[in-house]
Amino acid sequence: MAGAGPAGGRRARRALWARRALAIATACVGALGAACRAPESPTSAPASGRELPIWGEDFSPAPEGSALRGSDVSPEHSFVADPRPFTLGDRLFLLFEAFSERSGLGQIWLAQSRDAVHWEHFQRVSVQEGHMSHPEVRVLDGVVHAFYNVNQGGVILHRASPVEGFPQWGEESAIFRGIDHAWHHLVDFTFLQAEGRWYLLGITGNGTKVDQWIRGLVLPAFGLDWTRAAEVTPNPVARLAGAPWLAAIARPFGAGCAACLAGRWFPHPLLDVADSPWIVGINELTALEIGPRPVLLMGARDLDSGLRSVTAFEVSELGPSGLRGHWLSEGFVLPLGGPGWDEQDVHRADVVRFGDRWVLAYDANRLRRCPRPERGCWRIRFATMPYGAAGPRADDAR
After folding, report:
1. What backbone torsions phi and psi does residue 235 show, to the nearest 5 degrees?
2. Facing residues of 279 across strands?
3. Where are the beta strands (DSSP E) in 274-376?
4. How many other β-carbons are positioned within 10 Å of the β-carbon of residue 209?
């Protein structure tokens, strides 16, 4: 056979590598234009969004004694954070992170309530050992889907339970790995549906500065395998890393190699909050679909004060080619240190309708009198507002 023997094998291998090198070079040349285009700077639109139930001053904080603490989960848990409320029938459920002093790791737990004040039936959801955080939930077609992040590897895990008889969790499995898409790491994530498509949005960065990027993947329908999902923004390196043969080459070199490619050579995030004049980094991301347009609640740190709380970004357009939108305010939507809001550090908030009211759940770090300030004294607090009461605030009447 022509080409047989050692020499033929070497020629075939050289031809294969030449084709691969040409494919990479072609893609990179085409990438340069997209890579040099910076993401559009989001703009502020302070006059919009006032009808949404996201402004802390419109809510009534629940009594201090109603806060959920680590000791409510078990004696071995020191703090709780990352609340994700959802409803089934007349019950309010809460997915959250609980930190175990015994293992030194975060775990994902579930609790339920009939009044958003008293919580019971605590149940661990995460199975694997590893630091778990940032739970997400979707209820679709009679199934509750729980997702959460394994911080060390940028992996998203999933468990599901039928609504009938909830909770009856199935097996735990991975649906996303950052290395498969050349994401340097994954801080937090959320899902968003727009025009029939499903988007996975994640906070990441390039490993050299404060986390401030949001990147995205898209699937034509809801699914549990994001391995081959398309990158939302024109990020050619992510597309290359999605090719099976290139992923196989890059994987042995680890996330650092992928970060070098995607984060440093061709940085093109979906949204770069460095374009905002008042934010330094983001570490939480929650999609709300409770108004005419989706809103992304983000935990962010203020550039001037250094304080951390939640801000809001309204999405005006989201498609396979990108995202457009604006900040609803150049400031936090949740007050810090106000009456009933006796906290100085907040990094995640979520809102859900529960009967005739809105329930706001947020995690808060009590910095004063905290015995372990290096780890924090995180707990989950709640606030409520009658359904339909949201509207223009008094200072917007002019």
Report:
1. -110, 95
2. 302
3. 279-288, 295-302, 308-319, 322-327, 345-354, 357-365
4. 12
In the chain, where does DSSP find H-type helix?
5-36, 70-73, 236-241, 244-250, 254-259
Residue 1 CA: distances (Å) to CA of 4, 8, 122: 6, 10, 68
* 131-172 per-position pLDDT tens digit: 999 999 999 999 999 999 997 668 999 999 999 999 999 999
Rounded Cα gap, residues 372 and 351, in angstroms? 29
> What span, in angstroms and rounded, lies between the C-alpha atoms of 397 and 164?
46
Cα(217)–Cα(29) distance, integer angstroms: 23
| CA distance to 166, 176, 310, per residue, from 301 (Å) | 37, 27, 9
Tracing tokens 């954070």 back to the chain, one arrives at 81
Domains of the chain with CATH codes: 42-391 (2.115.10.20)
Q: DSSP code of 59? A: S
Q: What is the pLDDT of residue 15?
A: 58
Q: pTM of the entire structure?
A: 0.79
Secondary structure (3-state) at 19: helix
Tell me whether strands 322-327 and 43-44 are parallel, antiparallel or unpaired. parallel
Strand partners for 137 = 146
The pLDDT value recorded for residue 51 is: 87
Q: Which residues have a Cβ under 8 Å from the Cβ of 29 and sit 6 or more positions away?
A: none
Give φ, ψ of 72 to 5 degrees.
-70, -25
Summarised one tens digit per residue, pLDDT across range 349-383 is 999 999 999 999 999 887 777 777 767 789 999 99
15 C-beta neighbours (distance < 10 Å), count: 11
Predicted confidence band at 393 (pLDDT cuts at 50, 70, 90)?
very low
